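Bug #77: duplicate submission created two jobs. Keeping one. Sequence:
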Amino acid sequence: MEEQYKISDPQVLKVVAHPLRVRLLGLLRSDGPATASELGRKVGESSGSTSYHLRELFKYGFIEEDPERRDGRERRWRARHRYTSWDSGELIGTDEGREAVRIMRMRQVETLARVVQDYDERDWSPEWVSAAGMSDDFVELPPAGLKELDEKVEELIRDLAARHAGDPENQQVHVWIGGFPRAKGRAKDRAENPEIEEQDR
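Kept job's structure:
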């Protein structure tokens, strides 16, 4: 599997931004090769629906047939890349690009919400419960500092994965990295104009 699929065409990004396609691609990356029927059972869709969306993912280079595990009746698909990446600064030069980036951000948030909703502490040991979770923080950084943070966290993730490779307690872990600048004055505007708060909900 290749490391990443770097997208510079907003039309290609919109292809994978479809809610079912992004789920199918995520399952192929996390769970390995599968047929349309197997994926359909996991996502609660018909094999006809998943077959159509898998063909679209194939057409744009996100997935490929799995030559190692052929199924006589049905194609078995696998992901071609470990993750998808794009440069928001490069894509936002057009309306189509801005829309594609916005849609992909919302798909990421939807995936995060689904994972958090599915997580049930009763299914895990006290060690996992203690280690799992999320945090958030406010920090003042320039754009270069935020980029450096992202790069260092990615480097740390790779280092930890390498050091703990083969550990019998290993599980797949969802990890999100995000940072967005906060517009100054937003909180002040809401405090002085409480009706803004109501409109934003």
